Amino acid sequence: MGRQMMSIRGTDGGRGVRVTFDETGRRLKAGEHAVREGALRTAVGRRRAGVAGIVALALALGGCGTLLSGGDKALPTFDLSAPSDFHAPRRGSGLIVVGPPTALAVLDTERIVVEPQPGQITYLGQAQWSDRLPALFQARLIESFENGNRGRSVGRAGDGLSADYMLLSDLRAFGLRTYQGGPEAVVEVSVKIVGANSGRIVAAQVFSGRAPATSTSGPDATRALDQASDEVFLQIVRWASSRF
């Protein structure tokens, strides 16, 4: 605690003046009171600034927590589907595990990408995916393998399965392009099959799918992206099944 000062109005030589004493009762000289009062104000100001800084930091961390917790729950949320009612003939009996796709930061999010111009990236303002895109893509690709009658020969990386092959993928494009004639869903994925024991790439190919969108609204955009991704899922499952 800082020292306390007491100021009273008294008389000094018959004149009405303000006389200031310190906490011990000693009368302060002229100018000494001003110095002490200035120091006290400075200390109080520093304390207030410190408290304000702590409050600001707490608010900032709270905002970061909101950002890190995932997508905006107030936005309409959309999912991808997996193709069904198709058959993918199998050439071999090996077990394939599907790893999580890699993706650039602009795609590694719940937000839905829009390209208004080549090389320019923005996002739909009133829509989001149900999960981060790489996790969502991985889940629907595994489901596509299962729907193509490969349920017993496909698994998820990290599940502790004794696999023969690993399917690795990279999301090159997954969004809505609004240039060159109107909105169009574009999906492009690079896929590699790697031997689980050798670590060698035994097959690799790039797959792509496109579908026109009637508008850039959330329902229309995600419907077109779902169609384009279904096309890619079918291509990947049939390609991998015909080789392994």
UniProtKB/TrEMBL annotation:
Keywords: Membrane, Transmembrane, Transmembrane helix. The keyword Aminoacyl-tRNA synthetase does not apply. The chain crosses the membrane at residues 49-68. It comes from the Bacteria. It holds the Pfam family ABC_trans_aux. InterPro entries: ABC_trans_aux. Residues 80-236 form the ABC-type transport auxiliary lipoprotein component domain. This is ABC-type transport auxiliary lipoprotein component domain-containing protein.
